[in-house]
Amino acid sequence: MDSLGPSRTQATFNGPLEAGIRAVALLGAAYPKAFDLQRLTALDYLLVRTRDLNGGPESLHPPTPLRSPEAEVRRRIVHQGLTLMVSRDLARHVAKESGLMYVAGENAAVFLDALQTPYLLKLKDRANWLIRYFSGYSDAEFNAIVRQYFEDWIIEFQEFERSIGAS
């Protein structure tokens, strides 16, 4: 049978479209607050792993045994997703003294209201929970939490390397 198009090689939920939808959910939950790419990348990771946070609801995605490689590519994919969402007025750029920020776009609320599958309803719920969870945290406190995750990823990666005999 002839192929109808190129085969999909990306893992489900981890392409630019999926990352863009997660970003719009986060920006919609935080509106009118704006976030930079670094913060959105960290929130994207935490959004699908809310159980990792103290008192967090069930995670949307199952745990992965080795998270370090995932962290390395997430920023690029989130950026690609934001670019797609900006092109559809679901997010927009805001220039601030601290740099380029993103905020929910004109069409974000209508778009988010239209998302009604069980997974997407959970995604929107987790986005609202996550934004509330970090609402009282300063930038320094948020960054300290993200740094702790990064240190954990490094430890996991080193343990994995030792387990396979890498030097």
Explain this structure:
The protein has 167 residues and is mainly α. It has one domain. 56% of the residues lie in helices and 7% in strands. It is built from 6 helices and 2 strands; from the N terminus they run αααββααα. The protein has helices spanning 16-30, 37-47, 68-87, 108-114, 118-133, 139-163; strands spanning 91-96, 99-104. Strands 1-2 form a two-stranded antiparallel ribbon. β1 (91-96) and β2 (99-104) form a beta hairpin. The longest helix has 25 residues, at 139-163. It is globular, with a radius of gyration of 17 Å.
Termini distance? Answer: 47 Å
Structural class: mainly alpha
Q: Gyration radius, to the nearest Å?
A: 17 Å
Provide the spatial order of strands within the biggest beta sheet.
1-2
Estimate what percentage of residues fall within beta strands: 5-15%
User: How many β-strand runs?
Assistant: 2
Strand and helix layout:
Layout: H1 16-30, H2 37-47, H3 68-87, E1 91-96, E2 99-104, H4 108-114, H5 118-133, H6 139-163
Antiparallel strand pairs: 1-2
